Amino acid sequence: MNDSHSSVRLARTLLYVVRYVMVSIWLGGLVLLGTNVAPLIFRNVPAPTSADAMTLVFMRFDRFAVASGIMLLAVEIASALNARAALQAPNLLGTWRVLLASAALVSRLIEAAWLAPAIASLHRNGAVRGLGTLGETLARLHGWAEASGKIEVGLLLAYIGIVAWSESCPIPGSVPASAGPIGTK
After folding, report:
1. Is the pTM value of this prediction over 0.85?
2. Cis peptide before 48 (omega within 30 of 0)
3. How many CB atoms lie within 10 A of CB 162?
4. How many CA atoms lie within 13 A of 23 on its CB side?
5. C-alpha 160 chain-centroid distance
6. Phi, psi of 86 (to 5 degrees)
7. Tell me, what DSSP letter sits at residue 89?
8. First to last CA, the chain
9. CB under 8 Å, gap of 24 or more: what pairs does 102-105 form?
10. How does pLDDT run across 63-92, given as a tens digit for each residue?
11. Which of 22, 74, 85, 183 is geometrically suited to a Cys-Cys bond with 68, CB 3.0 to 4.6 A?
12. Nearest 5°: phi and psi at 171?
């Protein structure tokens, strides 16, 4: 094996490692916070302390998730450039990876830049979910944040599926033989 093949293989390996670490941090954090941390805090810590604590937790998580999303997108761009350098044609699966990672990042940016600060401001102003005008606004924004998080999880799971599928293809961008029409080989 010559040095050119070794460097391409090393670059691909590094891209895979970074890709998996970034998506693991992002998706794992979303699932852990949404299914364990938030319910535990809201069940066991009295209001408004529970809301203040979770606001801080989610705002800190946003930094990690946004950074992971940016790195994930950078990996996909680097993968496209790596494929181009190896004289491989751009592929549909690579395009889907970029689209899914981008959509998930946009969702997280909306949460980080708009929803989380708005929710934090409402908490600082004494809003209690469902009570009064501020509470109704808080409930609505909280619902949007929950929906955004669920959409993000779905997009990231789809991304992982596309990554796994694209890695099973013998030629980048091709469809695995097992993915043909039902009843064919």
Report:
1. no
2. yes
3. 20
4. 30
5. 10
6. -85, 10
7. P
8. 34
9. 102/73, 103/155, 104/26, 104/69, 104/152, 104/155, 104/156, 104/159, 105/66, 105/69, 105/70, 105/72, 105/73
10. 999 999 999 999 888 887 766 655 555 567
11. 22
12. -120, 130
